[in-house]
Amino acid sequence: MSLPPDPGSGEAFATASRFREDLFDSLTARGDELFELADALLCADGPVRAPVDLTLVAEHRRGHGAMYDALNSGNVDVPRLRQVLAGLPMPRAADGRLVLAVDISHWLRPDAATSPERLFCHVYGRNGRSSDQFVPGWRYSFVAALESGRTSWCQLLDAVRLGPADDVAEVTAAQVRRVVTDLIEMGRWHVGDRDILVVFDAGYDAPRMAHLLAGLPVEVLGRMRADRVMRRPAPSRKEYYLAHPRGGHPPRHGKEFRFARPDTWGEPDAATAQVTDRYGTARAMAWDRIHPRLTTRSAWIDHIGELPVIEGTLIRLEVDRLPGGNDPLPLWLWSSKTGMRTVDVDVRWQAFLRRFDLEHTFRMIKQTLGWTRPKLRSPRAGDHWTWLIIAAHTQLRLLRQAAADLRRPWEKPAGPRRLTPARVRRGFRNLRPHLACPARAPKPSKPGPGRPLGSKNRRPATRYDVGKTMKRPESITERNLLRP
Q1: Which of 456, 472, 399, 390 minimizes the C-alpha distance to 432?
Q2: Exposure check for the chain: N or C terminus, fewer CB within 10 A?
Q3: Which SS3 state, helix, strand or coil, does residue 482 take?
Q4: What percent of the chain is modeled with pLDDT above 90?
Q5: Which of the 8 DSSP states describes residue 435?
Q6: In angstroms, rounded to a whole number, what is the distance separating the alpha carbons of residues 17 and 23?
Q7: How many Cβ atoms are within 10 Å of 107's Cβ, its own excluded?
Q8: How confident is the model at residue 237 (pLDDT cuts 50, 70, 90)?
């Protein structure tokens, strides 16, 4: 059934049309084909199984050879497209601040021995196995702006493929710094606004990310492992000399704070309890000025000068139940902001729960838009395909207010303005005639002769090893041994 678009959605059409024109301007080589390929992603019926199937969609007016040529030899002006994404209307949290989520998603390529720059990706539960596995593939770091409330929407802002020689923390910090700078330049953050909240999962060291992002108007919020040991603030000189009248050098760190030992916690500086629909009663406790005791090892081995004391607020969240029925375990969070009040603690743990909306986006772009479906050899072609996926998802978000609910007979009706990205995609073909389509018509041409039938390929592709190409020292002794 085809339903006309909402007549009161002119602003959504105007915003989406401007984005499509900016997107076309960012495709600096093979732009017509890449633009039509993005439209075919949105107009195809059902999930995308292979990119060659998109050449059969009516909105794609070129052949399959042009599609592969565009992915391999085309070009996307990524810095320009990043600024275009940063200039779009941004979703905000309930208190009006921008909330960014950072996470890594894997494009698994276990059978692509001729594809360079593959890494071992840590996955769980693949092929029905309830265990950890390390599968070769490409790792992409995504940054997205989160919305408030329960939703499957977020605004993808950037994607960076991690190389074999990259330090994940340093590359991610540079990525977040670039995104925040674009948001400021495009007028999405002004002096006097609340700091941008950047949410990380347990795979990142939150104190180190706060140190790498120093100087930006951001606050780092990250999940901590349940076996961590941190330190309380050091006593003042007066308190120390009263406790130690014989003198001595005051310590830089206070007593230990062991997450697994409640007798080391002491009284929290803030405590709160809220009744929620999904989790029952959520109880949070916060301790101020908790910091790690850094040592000259691993990530800090090349640090010059005295190691910093990175203080923040430690939050422990405990709930009665989980939506899936599993046993709820306490959740430990660390924020780079100190001096929080009770209401500030609630905002932080609620913002962290919104980070899981990014998982819905990963599932959508993989299962529906077919992000990881192509068998592309070149990492550069994979980057082009990734940015087309981001552009397609962005158009769905911009048009969600104008789309009609084309639901299946067995699906429940969605509430007003509550359509999921997959449901908005079903009606994109009806919305496309109302949007700008700057791609030019194809010129008539004939396919090339190709390799003669029956001839052998005498130039086999190069095969590449998987994994890191640079060993990072874990101690000063190991570092000195690796130096020439």
Answers
A1: 399
A2: C
A3: helix
A4: 69
A5: S
A6: 10
A7: 22
A8: low
